[in-house]
Structure to design on (319 residues):
C-alpha cells in the first residue's frame, strides 16, 4: 500500500470512514532555496529587478512558453486561485496557508513563486479529489549535513528531522489550519525533491550525494509506511548547459539516485537545464544560484515536476 491513510476525526464524531468522505492527496515539496521559491512575479525596479524583465507578468507577455501560462490569470485579469488545491508552508518569518495561487514563496507578500505554482495546477487538474502541498524547504542547506537521513552514517540532519516533523504535524492537524479540510481522509501521495546547490562545494558531499538521497527517500517512505511512494527528483539545472564540473557531478548523482531507488518505476529524475534563461532577460541578474529570479524558469520547473509525478501516478490509478 503506497499511500498513507490518515483520518482527521470529525468534530464530536467517531473516527470512522464515512461514505462520501473527502479525500485529500498530499504531496511534500522538499529542498532548499529554489524550492522555497525565487521567481519574481511583478517587481520591476530598474536597479534591483532589471526593469521587470523575466518576471511572471513579463514572461506571460514575452516568454518563450507564454502560451502555457494563460491559466494563471482568471477571467477578470486577476491571479487565478484554485478551490481544490491547498498549500501549507512554514517560512522562517510566517506560516503561509491557503488556496493555491501566487505568493507561496519564502518572502512576505505575493511577489514571488516557486515550483509549487504550476506543479499544483497540474496535480489539481489530474485529481478529482482535493490536493494539499506541504512545502518543507530551507535555503542554504545541504543533503550531506542538514538533510542527512538516519540510515546514512553520521549524525541525522536537523532539517531532515524538521521535514519529518512538519509533515507529521500537518497530516494530523490539517483540519485545524485549513478548516475546509476538517474531517478529510489524507493520503500521502508523493515527494518532490529539489536541492543540490550546497553539496556542490564539498568533494565528499558530491561523492556521497546519490547514496544519501536514496537513504533519504527510503527513510521518508519507512517513516510514513508508504514503501512505494512516488518520488520526483529535480535537477540542479541552474546556469543551463554552462555548468561547471561540480554542478555536473551533482546532476549526475541526482539522476543516479533516481535510477537506484527501489522498487523500479517509483522514482524519476527531471532535467531542468533547458529552463535556464539569460540573466539579461531576468530580474535578479546577480543571482545565478536562484535562476536569476526568472519566473518562467520556476514555472517550467514546476510544470516538468508535475508531469513527471503524473507519469508515476497514472499506472497506479489505472489511467
Amino acid at each position: 500500500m503506497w499511500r498513507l491513510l490518515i483520518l482527521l476525526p470529525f468534530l464530536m464524531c467517531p473516527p470512522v470512514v464515512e461514505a462520501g468522505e473527502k479525500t485529500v492527496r498530499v504531496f511534500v515539496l522538499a529542498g532548499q532555496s529554489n524550492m522555497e521559491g525565487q521567481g519574481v512575479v511583478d517587481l520591476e525596479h530598474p536597479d534591483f529587478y532589471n526593469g521587470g524583465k523575466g518576471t511572471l507578468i513579463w514572461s506571460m507577455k514575452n516568454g518563450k512558453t507564454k502560451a502555457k501560462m494563460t491559466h494563471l490569470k482568471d477571467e477578470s485579469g486577476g491571479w487565478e486561485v484554485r478551490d481544490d488545491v491547498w498549500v501549507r508552508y512554514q517560512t522562517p518569518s510566517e506560516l503561509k496557508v491557503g488556496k493555491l495561487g501566487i505568493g507561496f514563496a519564502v518572502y512576505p507578500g505575493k511577489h514571488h513563486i516557486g515550483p509549487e505554482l504550476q506543479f499544483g495546477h497540474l496535480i489539481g487538474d489530474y485529481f478529482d479529489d482535493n490536493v494539499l502541498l506541504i512545502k518543507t524547504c530551507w535555503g542554504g542547506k545541504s543533503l550531506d549535513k542538514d538533510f542527512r537521513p538516519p540510515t546514512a552514517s553520521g549524525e541525522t540532519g536537523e532539517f531532515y528531522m524538521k521535514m519529518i516533523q512538519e509533515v507529521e504535524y500537518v497530516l494530523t492537524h490539517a483540519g485545524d489550519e485549513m478548516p475546509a479540510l476538517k474531517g478529510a481522509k489524507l493520503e500521502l501521495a508523493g515527494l518532490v525533491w529539489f536541492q543540490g546547490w550546497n553539496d556542490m562545494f564539498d568533494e565528499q558531499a558530491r561523492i556521497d550525494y546519490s547514496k544519501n538521497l536514496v537513504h533519504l527517500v527510503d527513510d521518508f517512505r519507512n517513516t510514513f509506511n508508504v514503501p512505494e511512494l512516488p518520488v520526483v527528483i529535480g535537477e540542479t539545472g541552474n546556469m543551463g548547459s554552462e555548468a561547471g564540473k561540480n554542478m555536473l557531478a551533482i546532476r549526475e548523482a541526482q539522476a543516479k539516485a533516481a535510477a537506484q531507488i527501489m522498487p523500479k518505476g517509483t522514482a524519476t529524475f527531471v532535467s531542468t537545464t533547458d529552463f535556464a534563461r539569460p540573466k539579461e532577460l531576468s530580474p535578479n541578474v546577480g543571482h545565478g544560484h536562484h535562476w536569476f529570479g526568472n519566473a518562467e524558469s520556476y514555472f517550467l520547473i514546476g510544470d516538468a515536476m508535475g508531469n513527471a509525478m503524473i507519469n508515476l501516478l497514472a499506472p497506479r490509478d489505472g489511467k
